[in-house]
Write a structure and sequence with these properties.
Number of strands: 11
Organism: Ancylobacter koreensis
Number of helices: 10
Structural class: alpha/beta
Keywords: DNA-binding, Transcription, Transcription regulation
CATH superfamily of the largest domain: Periplasmic binding protein-like II
Number of domains: 3
CATH class of the largest domain: Alpha Beta
CATH topology of the largest domain: D-Maltodextrin-Binding Protein, domain 2
Shape: elongated
Helix content: 25-40%
Protein name: LysR substrate-binding domain-containing protein
Domain HTH lysR-type: 1-58
Radius of gyration: 24 Å
Family: Belongs to the LysR transcriptional regulatory family.
Length: 302
């Protein structure tokens, strides 16, 4: 087995084809195909299914890709370490966040300190954030209440209660705080199943013997906001994520607060990567050594 063979396999797998891999590596397609063929022949294994000009990974190919992702990420970290003297003058930091506004202050400080680093931010729920980190498609995640795992480095940002909200023109707009049992009798608009906000709310409701059902389920926070703003039901969001929207009014939930904890998260094996370490160190310094910061309840929007 040679390095060039693994590199050829890895780029074909992540790019989805021999031609694209050849372009990325500045090689010819026959050269890439030859390296992959030799790797398969030497170990008597089929890594790609080649049918009707489509290239897909076999089960063995999927397993090898999981290994080569770690291999080439380690190589990238080694190069970053050797180039440490460049002091983060370049590079890319990829963030997937369930709510990017939790890190706006950190982003401002990071950009001022490391203006040469390009930052990309994508939206996702808890499940997609974790999936992107596990597949090495993101460097840092922002999500609520992660399940403890030795695979991840976790830094707590803050914790805020979940609140209900309705459209300003709704008959409920002037409602006093409602209990979960009272909310359960109303038409509810819920996030998709992978949403941690929804999961935390349902767990708290179950503890007091209440079952929440939804007349509408929508993927993404913005979709829920638009549906609720149109008058079709009651939505839920953490107070920190409510923002300023004149179309909407909050209804506090009466009883024990249902808290949403926001965290920064990265793979433990990648925490020493230069850009990741710099971002986490800055976030830790800004948030008081990573301790949970619980903001005071917001004034009700009306």
């Amino acid at each position: 087995m040679r390095y060039v063979q693994l590199r050829a396999f890895h780029h074909v797998a992540i790019s989805g084809g021999f031609s694209r891999a050849a372009a990325e590596l500045f090689l010819t397609q026959p050269a890439i195909s030859d390296q992959v063929r030799k790797l398969e022949a030497e170990y008597d294994v089929l890594l790609f299914s080649r049918e009707r000009r489509q290239v897909t990974l076999t089960p063995d190919g999927e397993k090898l890709l999981a290994i080569t992702r770690r291999l080439f990420d380690a190589e990238s970290q080694a190069l970053e370490f050797l180039a440490e003297s460049r002091a983060l003058r370049s590079g890319t930091l990829r963030i997937v966040a369930d709510a990017a506004h939790h890190i706006v202050d950190i982003l401002h400080a990071f950009r001022e300190r490391y203006p040469g680093v390009t930052i990309s931010i994508r939206a996702g729920n808890t499940e997609s954030v974790v999936a992107n980190l596990m597949s090495y498609d993101a460097d840092i995640g922002v999500l609520g209440d992660p399940n403890p795992s030795r695979e991840f480095e976790v830094m707590r940002l803050n914790a805020t209660p979940i609140t209900a909200f309705v459209g300003r023109d709704s008959p409920l707009a002037a409602s006093p705080p409602l209990s979960l049992a009272e909310l359960a009798r109303l038409p509810l608009v819920g996030r998709e199943g992978g949403s941690k906000t929804r999961r935390r709310l349902e767990e708290s409701a179950a503890q007091v013997g209440v079952e929440l059902t939804y007349v509408i389920e929508a993927e993404g926070r913005e979709a829920v906001r638009e549906i609720v703003a149109s008058g079709l039901g009651v939505g839920f969001v953490s107070e920190a994520e409510f923002g300023l929207d004149p179309r909407l009014v909050t209804i506090p939930i009466r009883g024990e607060p249902v808290l949403m904890e926001e965290t920064l998260i990265c793979l433990s094996e990648r925490r020493e990567a230069k850009t990741i370490r710099a971002f986490l160190d800055l976030a830790r310094a800004m948030s008081g050594d990573g301790r949970v910061q619980t903001p005071k309840p917001h004034a009700r929007h009306s």
